[in-house]
Design a protein that fits this description.
The chain is an alpha/beta fold and about 140 residues long. Helices cover about 20% and strands about 30% of the residues. The chain starts with a helix and ends with a strand.
Length: about 140
């Protein structure tokens, strides 16, 4: 019985120590002020689909950055750009553009690269369609 407990105790200790090991990858060092990995330098572009959201469709009025969501704000959600980054969004159907500031996370639907406020969607003229092809260009990074 003592022998079995010793083996079980040794096995548990070995598993515990093995679980504490890292995968051997070094942490990524990011430039000062950046807290993410991804597109972030002025001039970088991304092309895909955009959609819009509003206070009603967002399920609340607070963004991931903690700011209050407003329907008429020139703000948007992006999965990886840092909060405060300004991007120019171009509707590729009609070439209308708007400058927005990233203050939320999303969209989380495949193929979509940015969610803009409903006020921006009206300016870009795609509210009726719900989605539109777009290009975004980073203007400034926070």
């Amino acid at each position: 019985m003592k022998y079995g407990m010793a083996i079980l105790s040794g096995l548990a200790s070995a598993l515990f120590v093995a679980g504490c090991d890292t995968l051997g990858e070094e942490p990524v060092s990011l430039p000062h002020g950046l807290n993410h990995i991804g597109m972030s330098h002025s001039g970088q572009t991304e092309t895909g689909e955009m959609s819009y959201y509003s206070v009603k469709t967002n399920g609340g009025s607070q963004t991931a950055s903690g700011e209050k969501l407003t329907n008429d704000g020139h703000t948007a959600a992006h999965r990886t750009l840092p909060f405060g980054t300004k991007v120019e969004v171009t509707n590729l159907r009609n070439n209308r553009t708007a400058v927005v500031r990233i203050n939320d996370r999303g969209p989380f639907i495949s193929g979509r690269i940015i969610d803009v406020s409903i006020g921006v969607a009206k300016k870009l003229d795609f509210v009726g369609n719900g989605v539109a092809p777009c290009r975004i260009e980073v203007l400034t990074s926070n």
